Amino acid sequence: MAGGGTLRVLIAEDNRDTAESLKLLLRDLGYDAHVINDGESAVPAASALKPHVVIMDIGLPGLNGYDAARRIRARNPGVRIVALTGLDKLVDRQRSAEAGIDHHLVKPANPAVLRQILDSTPRTG
Fold it and tell me: How many domains does one find in the chain?
């Protein structure tokens, strides 16, 4: 674990079962996990929660994950953003990088890879 304190994670996922399952998994692993179910709500939620990590679906209703990531990154430059999506083409990965997304994981993500990303995230603020 990098730094001190509990890692705050915001999950932006419109599939409620997927979101709740991920939240429960992350909480069982000792992370402080919160869920939001659309891109538009993710932006103010990230400003209020000040998460260390945002796990973002790309295919969110309303404001998609790319645009939500851009807005979150503009307000919270130090946050780590992880796309967790079904989109796996090179163009999707390029769009993630252009949107300021740090990691592009394809569903279902390998839990060990996700945990490695989370555990390597600095805990500041």
Answer: 1
Beta-bridge partner residues of 3: none
pLDDT in tens, 88-116: 999 999 999 999 999 999 998 888 999 99
* C-alpha to C-alpha distance for 41 and 10, rounded to whole angstroms: 11
Query: Does residue 57 lie in a domain region?
Result: yes
Q: Return all residues near 93 (Cβ < 8 A) that are at least 6 apart.
A: 104
